[in-house]
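Backbone Fold Data
Goal — fold tokens
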Amino acid sequence: MSDPALQAPPGLSLEELLDNFELLDDWEARYAYLVELGEALPPLPDALRSEDNRVKGCMSQVWVCAQPDSSRPRKLVYQGDCDTAIIKGVLAVLIGLYSGRTQAEIAALDTDELFERLGLKENLSPNRHVGVYAIVELMQAQARQLG
């Protein structure tokens, strides 16, 4: 049973995301699915491609930006982009997970659980693994700054 506090990319429930991963037989198909999720991310405005929004510690060029939700000021929404397809897909999953939450809710999320359930922990290269956690750290830091 999935944790109701976790969410998937917009338009896709966490349960659907987990079910889709389980339906895919091998990691090649799962990687392709992550690429599809990344391709669905809206373009990141050039103004948000700042040094403050760039993820350090990731071999890919990744930007992520948290902003207050205009309709729900205590909640945050994230935008982002990446120059590599797989990490952009993971970024899409993280944006779906963190968007629509308060700073306290974001701090309480267990991304390790999500990565474990998706099988990302054992199927990402060590360099990608470090980069993904650098993305998580920046997203959490942005939430603390805005919270």
Remarks:
- The helical segments are 14-23, 27-39, 85-98, 103-108, 111-118, 120-123, 126-146.
- Residues 126-146 form the longest helix (21 residues).
